[in-house]
Design goal:
- 65% of the residues lie in helices and 0% in strands.
- By secondary structure, the protein is an all-alpha fold.
């Protein structure tokens, strides 16, 4: 709209350069949401430095109108946020590489590439803005008119949006299961399991494997995930599961995370509650 609709372009320019509250609010929402998303991905709080920096950037942008009109005013308004984006991307690339085994397999393992794309595009946006603002935009004495917009900014937003749509589609395709109302539970093949050698096993516990099997099949767990589910239900730690199944701790965390995703839970307690509330039909 700012590029193709004249009246909106003029209104946008006046709001941006005289009272940039709207644009600043958009920056606050976008960058703040990015911090919250990354916090959710890492399951740990982001550095306080970034939250303080975001607040200072927003305050700075709100006071930009007191500067003299001209290309420097526009460039200085944009640059702090772009620097923030670059630092955020490179910092999370570093954190992801620092301890790869402790990171959940978020974004289908593409988190590092997404952060690299984010950082590179932030640098590209700064470069493009520097060229456009100082060499192509016009700044008449009585009215500032920004004639060119950021192609790299649009490219980054479209790229991230398309990837987010792909992730959502993939997740829905994995989790939405259309129930077969014609299927008889007797047709489900439950593997034979011999508990005769297990001493002093309460009668109620001998029913758990069948329930766990049906529970796993309903949520489409793989064979390995079914093994890990049984150990999770037995309150085993990640290290104990890793030792018992002879797999790495990173692989254990990956499978555990996938199990949580399929059941739509975030904690073991929630998984146990879902299992306890599951009824054989």
């Amino acid at each position: 709209m700012a590029e193709n609709i004249l009246w909106f372009s003029r209104l946008y320019n006046r709001l941006l350069l005289s009272v940039p509250t709207v644009k600043t609010l958009l920056y606050l929402i976008t960058l703040g949401s990015t911090l919250l998303i990354i916090t959710e991905i890492f399951q740990r709080s982001m550095s306080t430095f970034f939250w303080i920096s975001l607040i200072l950037i927003m305050l700075f942008q709100l006071y930009t109108p007191i500067l003299s009109d001209g290309p420097w005013k526009v460039w200085i308004y944009y640059f702090p946020a772009q620097l923030f984006m670059f630092c955020l991307g490179t910092y999370n690339m570093y954190m992801y590489k620092k301890a790869p085994g402790s990171n959940p397999p978020t974004l289908d393992g593409h988190f590092y590439k997404v952060m690299a794309f984010y950082a590179v595009m932030a640098a590209a946006i700064t470069l493009e803005d520097s060229i456009v603002i100082f060499h192509f935009d016009n700044y008449p004495p009585l009215e500032i008119e920004i004639q060119n917009r950021s192609f790299t900014q649009d490219f980054m937003n479209i790229g991230l949006s398309l990837y987010a749509i792909k992730l959502l589609f993939d997740k829905l395709s994995r989790t939405i299961v259309i129930p077969d109302t014609k299927q008889d539970i007797s047709s489900i093949q439950i593997p034979d399991m011999d508990f005769s050698t297990a001493p002093d096993v309460p009668e109620i516990e001998t029913k758990i494997p069948s329930k766990a099997y049906l529970f796993s099949k309903e949520y489409q767990l793989t064979a390995r995930e079914q093994e890990i589910l049984l150990l999770l239900l037995d309150n085993k730690s990640n290290q104990e599961i890793s030792d018992e199944l002879k797999i790495s701790i990173g692989t254990t965390k990956t499978h555990t995370h996938n199990i949580f995703q399929k059941f739509g839970v975030r904690k073991r307690q929630q998984l146990l509650e879902a299992y306890q509330n599951y009824n054989l039909k």
